[in-house]
Specification:
Layout: E1 2-3, E2 8-13, E3 17-23, E4 32-40, E5 45-52, H1 66-90, H2 103-126
Length: 127
Amino acid sequence: MSEISNNICKVAEFKQMDMYKAHCDCISDDHIQTLCIEYDEECDIVTLTIYSKIKYNIKYDWDTNWKKRVQYWFRRQLTKIKAIKSILVDGEVEAENEFIFRGPKQIHDYCEAIQSSTTKFTNKFNN
């Protein structure tokens, strides 16, 4: 692994693909992104794929009253069922994922990782 900055590391390098891991500044293991930058020789394009774990946002609301805890549990189950229905019926679910950067340097390093692989592939295969 070669470290590009505090939160971004190159984890794999292949002939036509580089992979990076980027960690969110909140240090949660749920906020890790895997960036795959790949050159497709057949189509002559460079693609960026970002993999991340996305959780369905369910507000944490806990109470010492057992009746409220049961109501909360049922609300969570209903929310999950609605998400499942959306996937089964519509074929999609809307979700979002946060990724926190610690200032301009970290944003620059993230972009630099993408740019360095893109440059490598375009120079390597266009010659």
